[in-house]
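Continuing the series of single-chain predictions for the mutant panel. This is the parent chain; the variants come on the following pages.
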Amino acid sequence: VQLQASGGGLVQPGGSLRLSCAASGNIFRPNLMAWYRQAPGKQRELVAVMSSGGTTTYADSVKGRFTISRDNAKNTVYLQMNSLKPEDAAVYYCNLAGGLTTYWGQGTLVTVSS
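Parent structure:
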C-alpha cells in the first residue's frame, strides 16, 4: 500500500488549506484513515481520524476548524483546515490502518505565517 499526500503550502494566519491523501495497492477494509502532524521538536500527534464507516475523531486543538472526509471509492482522505493558526504549522502525515498494519504517507509541509 502506498499513500501519496498533497496540498501543503504557505498560508497566512486565518487562512485555509485542503490536504489530500490517495491510497493505492491492496487496501484492507474496513480501515481507518487519519492525519497526523509533527512540528519541529515535538512528537507526532493525531489530528483527525475517520473510519471507513464515517466515524470521526478530532484532536481538541482542531475541533471546529478542521474537517476530515474521505472518498472510499477513490481511497482518498481529505483534511480541510480553516482558521489556521501559527501553531498548526507542521509536517502533516496521512495514515492508513487496517488488517493489523499501518501505512504512512511521505508528509506534506504546512506553514502558517504572515
